[in-house]
Amino acid sequence: xxxxxxxxxxxxxxxxxxxxxxxxxxxxxxxxxxxxxxxxxxxxxxxxxxxxxxxxxxxxxxxxxxxxxxxxxxxxxxxxxxxxxxxxxxxxxxxxxxxxxxxxxxxxxxxxxxxxxxxxxxxxxxxxxxxxxxxxxxxxxxxxxxxxxxxxxxxxxxxxxxxxxxxxxxxxxxxxxxxxxxxxxxxxxxxxxxxxxxxxxxxxxxxxxxxxxxxxxxxxxxxxxxxxxxxxxxxxxxxxxxxxxxxxxxxxxxxxxxxxxxxxxxxxxxxxxxxxxxxxxxxxxxxxxxxxxxxxxxxxxxxxxxxxxxxxxxxxxxxxxxxxxxxxxxxxxxxxxxxxxxxxxxxxxxxxxxxxxxxxxxxxxxxxxxxxxxxxxxxxxxxxxxxxxxxxxxxxxxxxxxxxxxxxxxxxxxxxxxxxxxxxxxxxxxxxxxxxxxxxxxxxxxxxxxxxxxxxxxxxxxxxxxxxxxxxxxxxxxxxxxxxxxxxxxxxxx
Length: 494
Prior knowledge:
- The chain folds into two domains: 1-211, Growth Hormone, Chain: A; 220-482, MFS general substrate transporter like domains (Growth Hormone, Chain: A), CATH 1.20.1250.20.
- Helix content is 79%, strand content 0%.
- It is built from 16 helices and no strands.
- The model has no long low-confidence stretch (mean pLDDT 86).
């Protein structure tokens, strides 16, 4: 093995985290606005847009990601295995991000081909960038405590990107485009492309791979797959990843219906006014107008406005949760903290079934507490996956970091796809009628059940699965110590 020094500087943690901020400026835009961009900006038929998104998404999950995982584990350069991929993909990622959100006039068939081609290339480059980036966290340090800290830095950056996209993107589109969404998207994506490229280069320049497998540890693809199938912690983490992202897609897709059809519109209006939020928006618009810019185009209807504020407050609380995650994990171990925080966050989800339509303030408070508790789990999920790579090396005397992370990213994409499909399926089951100002009582009840009970089930199953996860705090210490001893022995024999 290479160096046994595992302490990460603040500079390295910040540099690494900028890579995920860059990637998520694009990833969050894709999952939140790509369908809207295709249908309402580029004017593709909805069915065509849905087909493009689904087909390319499946290619990303089952073709691009595994292939990149296999290739990355077998990369050997003077910069390491995973860092070069960040360098190689930095500029293509930025260019393709801009092209995917451009609107050339190519005719009906040409537009479909253009959208399919640019999106497929972007997803491929995203896999070639993000998978090695994620795997890099497993080889920057052999210290599990340092990984806890690294993950905290990383996911604060992710939450910043999520806040920018989910709360500020559309206002920025309208401001920079002076009301023209086509021009606005091009302006915003140009900024994202430039910023993202620079951030990726910073990540490459500020990181160093410390865990480098010896030649004796390498093996074939079949051996990698065999190791995975016999790795129980990996099996648990794969199932857990799928369940977590089913919840995120299901929750994210149904909360807007909860605000639109269950919460009292009068209560929402009163909350927005009494909380001072409407006054803040009026003051912001006055300031932008005096500076010669278009107004801050916050949603005007109460339900959408409250939902946007809801998301913003939730993200802020998630960031606060991420901030305390490392200290808790260092003291109690990642597994126990993850399970405890996930269970408590689930209780706040279940509470949504009990709130009357007028309890806007209580619903906000419950979601913020849910966000704080869930935020604690966010960095731990990926730190635990890095620990699984250590476990595999400890048990099999072979390290295959990227293939482990590629499987988890497949689980992420499967979870998002299943959760998204469940949103439509549940609404259809209860008889949801699109475009209606109000919904039948049975539909409203189904929406209440979805945002509370149904959303809670994946989290509860995930908590139960953790009882089969072997890597507790004691096991973490043993694995770390044994691997360090092996690496010292390997270094001494060189």
